Amino acid sequence: MRFTKMHGIGNDYIYIDCMESMPDRLPELAREMSDRHMGVGGDGIVLICPSEIADFRMRMFNSDGSEARMCGNASRCIAKYVHDHNLSHNNPINLETLSGIKVLSLNMAGDNVKSVTVDMGEPSLNKDDIPVVNDDGERCMIEKSVVTPYGEYNVTAVSMGNPHGVIFVDNLEDIPFENLGPYMENHPIWRDRANIEFAQVLSSGVIKMRVWERGTGETLACGTGACATLVASAITGRTGRMATLKLRGGDLDIEWMADGHVMMTGAATEVFQGVYRRQC
Ligand SMILES: N[C@H](CCC[C@H](N)C(=O)O)C(=O)O
């Protein structure tokens, strides 16, 4: 099985071109290929498939085998892949996802893809959309206090087509990330677990963040998580509607437009291609 290893500012996935055929037992394949010792190694797998309603269709599986409804960093890498591998010369490219069609704009330098801007669509703060277990009759969950064995934290729930819990802290160095991340990912307030973002606002236009992803654990970057963090920051008055999100793997420029759509711009990198011998 041929594959291409790519990353979006360090959020590394294994990309499989499924324009002709689709492997079976995808959760098992995701777990096996993502293993960093006995497989290829990655945060998960991403399938590039034909679509009847867009240019391409994305399916994305976390390293634990769970399928996600949207992946921001992978969307940018798909745009670069289909351009570089001559699958399409459209610009923008329409990508079908489980969270609707996303529009991917290639920012070119000559024939090289310098960066990609993704229209991530509109966020939702409605607890039913995230989904959050609704135990207090509130429509949204904004700065809700959650008591944990590691201290009390205020959580803001945002959907970018997938669930996010955003926690603002004074200093990212001072949090018990390895314990708090999985605890919050699996907290019973989430019906389907959640991606957890820890964010430190550095200025009105710069936010530093670390992310514990649902189904993968810590990643060096999370595109949907960066968008969710910007939205949470704007609605809680910490920043405006545009900021640079500084993640461990690099920066993303995010803007929450007046029309409600969130635009995310960042790099996409192809690292190597290979042939995988399936074990399962
Ligand atoms: N772990 C996420 C999917 C990957 C999202 C992230 N890698 C991104 O770039 O948006 C979830 O289960 O919803």
Work out the radius of gyration. Answer: 18 Å
Sequence of secondary-structure elements? EEHEEEHEEEEEEHEEEHEEEE
Give unreliable regions as ranges.
none
Q: Roughly what percent helix?
A: 10-25%
- What's the N-to-C terminus distance? 13 Å
Tell me the CATH superfamily of the largest domain. Diaminopimelate Epimerase, Chain A, domain 1
Bound molecules: 2,6-diaminopimelic acid
Anisotropy-based shape: globular
Percentage of β-strand residues? 35-45%
Give the count of helical stretches. Answer: 4
Task: Outline the secondary-structure elements.
Elements: E1 2-8, E2 11-17, H1 26-34, E3 44-49, E4 56-62, E5 67-68, H2 72-84, E6 93-97, E7 100-109, E8 112-119, E9 144-148, E10 151-159, E11 163-168, H3 177-185, E12 195-203, E13 206-213, E14 217-219, H4 223-235, E15 242-247, E16 250-256, E17 262-266, E18 269-275
GO biological process, one term: lysine biosynthetic process via diaminopimelate
Pfam family, one: DAP_epimerase
Site (Could be important to modulate the pK values of the two catalytic cysteine residues): 164, 213
